[in-house]
Amino acid sequence: MIGLLGAPLAWLLVVYVGSLALLVVSAFFSLDELSGRVTTDPTLDNVAEAFGESAYWSLVARSVGVAAAVTVACLALALPSAYYVSRLARPWAKRGLIVAMLLPLWAGYLVKAFGLRAIFEPGSEVGGGGLLRALVGWSPGFGYAAVIATLAYLWYPYMLLSVYAGFERLPESLLDASADLGAGSLRTFRSVVMPMLVPSIAAGSIFTFSLSLGDYITVKIVGGTAQLIGNIIERALLAPNQPLAAAFTIWPIGIMIAYLSVMGRLGAFENL
Fold this sequence. Notes:
2 strands, MetI-like fold
């Protein structure tokens, strides 16, 4: 098996890791102001700007906060739904329920994002607005709340699959033993189920956290004036200033390396 996977892994290292390395290296070169081309003159100005401004630190903190909130929201939705499908649903209904909850993956990214935009449309004092305002007379409007809700809707299936797989691997004998020892449902869930689900939750969080951290399109669609690190990278690319954009990408790369190292210690990679 290792021999069969050797070539794909080597290709992944060359193309993906190699391109990331080149991207980071390009952050240390200057940009010719007249031609707009990257020069071979080394400089630390781009990295100093990306890491030296306090406003960017706040922006990165907000980006991490949004990604963490999306992950928590996905987990809060995935735990009860995955438990029901794996433990309570009839065997003949399991596949249908899983397919139904994975259906959002079959729709286009932009279709789903603009669909959520129609729901959160704030309208105005004279009328209008989206589905929420029409149904309950209120909408949070465009902003970080709408971004978190939209991203949670987009990436929830990835958390669901991981948590569902964790429930399916949970030995029934452990639950029976906990009940025999007098533990109630909540105690069993807290002391037996959750510790065994940690690797599956960590695996699912890799998708929800990383995809949310690097997203910038959803923010443009439902974020209003909200800004995340991905929007700053896009703005630098459109300037165009590739070295500065590359310097900003060091932020999410570094965050994800740290996040993956923590999730790896929790057993995430064995459950992917």
